Amino acid sequence: MLSLVYRSAWDVVLEERPVPDRIKDNQVLVRIRATGICGTDLGIISGKYHAKPSTILGHESAGEVVRVGPDVTALRPGDRVVIDPTYYCGQCAMCRTGRQNHCVRKGETETGVSSDGTFTDYYVTEDRFLYKLADHVSYEEATMTEPLSCMLTGIDQMRLMPNFRAVILGAGPIGMLYSYALASKGVSGSIVEISEHRLQIATSIAPERWNVYPSMEDALTAMSPDNRQVDIIVDTTGIMATQAISALAHGGYLMLVGLRDGESTFNPKEIVDRSLKIIGSIDSLGTFATAHYMIERKVVPVGKLITHRFPLTEYQEAFRALGCDLQKRALTSSSTAVKVILHSGA
């Protein structure tokens, strides 16, 4: 089976790997049909996020059941499914204290990072990580379930009020999904995007009662001209935390979701005195089923976010659309796409 394999930074290649011929009693063999490119994939390729060499990349996937183990009763060959890639053992200290997204086995089981992923033709997983798709949900739309579930995990860490005002920094897939997830809770807000191309796309697909601006200053002035402060700031860029603190209202939330090394500074006294909350959030924690439901019921119109699609063999063009140029070994903020989907073989 054709697979996109990570060797080292800027060195990813298509390789033929054997189709899995053995599955355990509780496992399922899935024929991958569509996989979304995630910011984690870009971080791995550019050397900004560690992955195990010789690992097949990819984790945002949907496909068709090919074979099931003898203990699998809820699925059968031909079923269309979406894959929850966040494996957890259920037995370690993290899992038993409600932190399954930080399972101690993550270093060997993280799909597309430390364990073979889904930029390939076939993938094996346990039945507990598969969810059936309704007939009207496409494979492409289903790939958005995992990233949406990550946004919902972040939102679950905030005590939201419907009259809260939010600013989201970055109009990539994460930023746009956060806007829709917050909008589903009644929160209005603004999206900030410096890329003119993405700004235009975001303007056309933003949720109702949400606006798009080229700078945080413009967004704050429009939303809160008196004090230029809001209740929630979601930083998907990984570089705006310091500037965001002063733009938070008392009791406000700063959500950090950008995986980027760097340093930010803040005054601890200000955090305490103004009851500010700084939250980091990664992966999905008990929210995959909710994301699955929201996509099925069209609460979040994820199809609007998918701007480009390529066959797996054209992976270089797909990554280039997201500002990741493998030949030039360059990752830039310039992007002509929001969400890009790779389709495995015919």
From TrEMBL:
User: SMART domains per the record?
Assistant: PKS_ER (SM00829)
Q: Where is the signal peptide?
A: none
| Entry keyword set | Metal-binding, Oxidoreductase, Zinc
In Pfam terms, one family for this protein is: ADH_N
Gene3D superfamilies tied to this protein: Medium-chain alcohol dehydrogenases, catalytic domain, NAD(P)-binding Rossmann-like Domain
Biological process (GO) annotations?
Answer: butanediol biosynthetic process
Residue limits of the Enoyl reductase (ER) domain?
3-342
MF (Gene Ontology): (R,R)-butanediol dehydrogenase activity; zinc ion binding
Q: Which cofactor does it need?
A: Zn(2+)
Which InterPro entries does this UniProt record tie to the protein?
ADH-like_N, ADH_Zn_CS, ER, Glu_dehyd_C, GroES-like_sf, NAD(P)-bd_dom_sf
This protein's GO CC annotations: cytoplasm
Concerning its family, UniProt says:
Belongs to the zinc-containing alcohol dehydrogenase family.
Q: What is this protein called?
A: Dehydrogenase
Organism name: Paenibacillus elgii
